[in-house]
Write a structure and sequence with these properties.
- This protein is of the alpha/beta class.
- It has eleven helices and 14 strands.
- The chain has a six-stranded mixed beta sheet with strand order 6-7-8-3-9-10, with helices on both faces. Strands 2-1-4-5 form a four-stranded antiparallel beta sheet.
- The structure holds adenosine-5'-triphosphate.
- Adenosine-5'-triphosphate (ATP) binds next to strand 2 and helix 1.
- GO terms for molecular function: ATP binding.
């Protein structure tokens, strides 16, 4: 398969006299094959928008290389721009224009045949409301209009930042069907989303970013399989002993993620070892169950962003590369 998008060793440092130096992208890699729906995931502040803005030539990178549809960018952006549709930040529309006026204006400016306006209105489900002013639209309808505008050029690569934002469950399902239909027609779709259940349902592959670096990538099933090995849920007779148990198991080399009423362990070969270790310290197990993980658990584990009772995780606290499975609260911090 050929890569529609290739990013290698991308670096972006923001410097400010007041806030110092921030490595927003710290050698980030990403590869997206043709015709797939690819999920781009990461905690808040991990570098997703910076990556997408850099890719679209809106930000100058400090290092690394990027190629879109086989052309090195940003140099070849004028060549490939007509084949890339993107919504990276909520686009602003004229509030007094209708959806059809808005799309007709954009189509005219981009040499897109007028007939395409009705096609995209149909695709995103706005056909029956196309004559109404944008200012009367709900958030979800504006989101549909944004997707319609990105589809106008019938791009080969469609990049969407949070396309399900503001959509109701029915709208999310329709968006999911639309993404799959587009991919089946040969379009490659890259989408960031915080709705991990959706990503798991829609995407062929995912890239997970944390602190500006790739921490996991590949087909969803493969990423799940890599991280579901030895997954075990542990409950104790006394829930107040969970902190002590997490500490003990962590020191024994088990990857532990804390939840309010249980622990999730990863990489456990023999669950009996866990109950023995805990019992030796008078911590008694009430449940020890092997579990198959979902994308949300994998995301929380490898980015170390699972909530910990009594702790308020700060946005820059997520996992560093090569250290999956660290417990939440791991300090990331900004390297110089
Ligand atoms: N113009 C800027 N100046 C300084 N720092 C910036 C700038 N833009 C982004 N950053 C920082 O770079 C880091 C990455 O930000 P980015 O917006 O790429 O994250 P993100 O993954 O898109 O987050 P979110 O999911 O919250 O949208 C953050 O710490 C952010 O504060």
């Amino acid at each position: 398969m050929s890569a529609v998008l290739e990013i290698e060793g991308l670096r972006k440092t923001y410097k400010s006299r007041r806030r110092g130096v921030r490595n927003a992208l710290d050698g980030f890699d990403m590869r997206v094959e043709a015709g797939q729906v690819h999920g781009f995931l990461g905690p808040n502040g991990s570098g997703k928008t910076t990556t997408l803005r850099t890719l679209l030539g809106l930000i100058q990178p400090d290092g690394g290389r990027m190629a879109v549809l086989g052309h090195e960018v940003p140099g070849a952006l004028p060549t490939v721009a007509g084949q890339v549709g993107a919504i990276v930040e909520s686009p602003q529309f004229f509030p007094h224009f209708s959806a059809r006026d808005t799309l007709s204006l954009l189509a005219g400016a981009g040499d897109v045949p007028a007939v395409r306006v009705d096609e995209v209105l149909e695709l995103v489900g706005l056909r029956d409301r196309a004559a109404e002013r944008v200012k009367t639209y709900s958030l979800g309808m504006k989101q549909r209009l944004a997707v319609a505008s990105a589809l106008l050029k019938n791009p080969k690569l469609l990049i969407l930042d949070e396309p399900a934002n503001g959509l109701d469950p029915g709208g999310i399902r329709e968006m999911r069907t639309l993404m799959r239909t587009l991919a089946e027609s040969g379009m490659t779709v890259v989408l960031s989303s915080h709705i991990l259940g959706e990503i798991q349902l829609i995407c062929d592959e995912v890239t997970i970013i944390s602190l500006g670096r790739r921490v996991a990538a590949g087909p969803v099933e493969q990423v799940l399989a890599q991280h579901s090995h030895g997954g075990v849920r542990v409950r104790l007779d006394a829930a107040e002993d969970l902190a002590a148990a997490a500490d003990l198991l962590g020191r024994a080399g088990v990857a532990v993620t804390r939840h309010p009423d249980h622990l999730m362990l990863a990489g456990v070969d023999k669950p009996a070892t866990v109950s023995r270790l805990l019992a030796e310290q008078h911590l008694y197990v009430s449940e020890l169950a092997p579990v198959s993980v979902d994308l949300e658990s994998v995301f929380l584990e490898i980015t170390a962003t699972a909530p910990v009772p009594g702790q308020h995780r700060q946005v820059d606290q997520s996992a560093t590369i090569g250290e999956p499975g660290r417990t939440a609260g791991t300090t990331g911090g900004w390297g110089a």
